[in-house]
Amino acid sequence: MYAQMVKSTGNQVKNLEEMEPDERAFQTRINADIKIEAKDWMPDGYRRTLIRQISQHAHSEIVGQLPESNWIKRAPTLERKAILLAKVQDEAGHGLYLYCAAETLGISRDEMTEQLLAGKAKYSSIFNYPTLSWADMGAIGWLVDGAAIMNQVPLQYCSFGPYARAMVRICKEESFHQRQGFDIMMKLVGGTKAQKDMAQDALNRWWWPALMMFGPPDASSVHSAQSFAWNIKQNSNDELRQKFVDQTVPQAQHLGLEIPDADLVWNEDKGSYDYGAVDWDEFFAVLSGNGPCNAERLQARQKAWDDGAWFREGLTANAQKRAKL
Ligand code: 3HC
Questions:
Q1: Is CB count within 10 Å lower at the N or C end of the chain?
Q2: What distance lies between CA 66 and its chain's CA centroid?
Q3: Ligand 1 centroid from CA 215, angstroms
């Protein structure tokens, strides 16, 4: 299945000589590392790419609250509950900064939500997996937020000003999230055998989906070439995946846990780890809506949207009334 889905990226990125004057001036600014702001002229493709990526990123933050909120009521201590609650609230804030950044490009938050609910906009594959034990709160913070930071730190330096600026605070908060997850894992591995087994089980289930977060392999990443040219992306999916593996394996060793990959081995020549084959069939199945929790996640978002209708109508009615005064 994966082989059939791999498309040649075929993305022809124009060089400066092939561009119309507006586009050439735009690309020259990007090449000089000057930020593009919302009111600046931009090619339609740049606008579309940013709306696609930022809105999907925002949806990921919002949908990403669901697997963890499942454990707020069952956190083992009051302190852990307060920390988890704060983390989940942070994710809501991230979603809002990102929706605001996307709105500067001429799309409304309602339209973005409608695209999500209609299955036209994606959100990160990782949030279609279930949270089965408290150790999953540790594994999500450590691995999922860890992978998110790896991908998002470069986005602070991307060419679109509102996105780059939104990412500064998000990265700071994700860093706290990663540490709280690692702290949960530390506590569990220092506990009873049952607690350590729970931590290992969580690592076993979240490791491969965390590697998938970085996106398809470079050879089948349809958007990368153009996103590099526009300085939306600075590192390829495979580069960031490799960095994540290299950073995380020593952390697992410190925890005394085993990465569930029989092919994982240090490669002295390249100065990084070789790792086993990611199951890209599983990744594409999740993207097509067939992950373990896709239906549940979208139902939860649909319910929140329906339940909030009275509030949105109230806000609009008030704005309309004020406009008439
Ligand atoms: N899950 C879902 N869809 C994914 C995906 C993933 N893990 N990785 C790639 N895709 C999708 C792309 O969106 C694209 O689909 P589309 O054409 O319908 O939009 C398709 O697969 C092809 O992938 P490409 O590599 O060509 O796409 P990109 O160049 O956009 O690269 C990306 C993918 C690296 C995820 C990039 O979009 C990106 O950096 N996005 C911003 C970061 C982001 O969205 N992170 C979400 C992580 S979760 C999070 O932040 C919450 C935190 O609290 C943990």
A1: C
A2: 14
A3: 6
Q: What is the C-alpha to C-alpha distance for residues 119 and 114, in angstroms, rounded to an integer?
A: 9
Band of residue 3 on the pLDDT scale cut at 50, 70, 90: very low
Q: Which atom of ligand 1 is nearest to the CA of 49?
A: 30
Q: Whose CA is nearest to atom 27 of ligand 1?
A: 223
Report the nearest-CA residue for atom 9 of ligand 1.
215
Residue-wise pLDDT tens digits, 78-109: 999 999 999 999 999 999 999 999 999 999 99
User: Averaged over 224-249, what is the pLDDT?
Assistant: 97
Cβ–Cβ < 8 Å for 142, 251: yes
Which residues line the pocket of ligand 1, CB cutoff 6 A? Answer: 52-53, 56-57, 60-61, 64, 91, 122, 124-125, 144-145, 148, 151-152, 212-216, 221-224, 227, 233, 237, 287
Reduced 3-state DSSP string for 190-211: CCCHHHHHHHHHHHHHHHHHHH
Strand intervals (E) in the chain: 265-267, 272-274
3-state secondary structure of 272: strand
Instruction: Compute the average pLDDT of residues 153-182.
Output: 96
Ligand 1 atom closest to Cα of residue 9: 26
pLDDT at 282: 98
> How does residue 11 score in pLDDT terms, banded at 50, 70 and 90?
low
Taking the model in full, what pTM does it have?
0.94
Pocket test for ligand 1, best of 9, 53, 137 (most atoms within 8 A of CB): 53
- Please state, as a whole number, how many other Cβ atoms lie within 10 Å of the Cβ of residue 109: 16
3-state secondary structure of 292: coil
Residues found in the chain:
325
> Which atom of ligand 1 has the smallest separation from the CA of 177?
53
DSSP 215: -
Task: State how far the Cα of 98 lies from the Cα of 233, in Å rounded to an integer.
Answer: 17
Q: Which two tokens stand for residue 66?
A: 């669901």
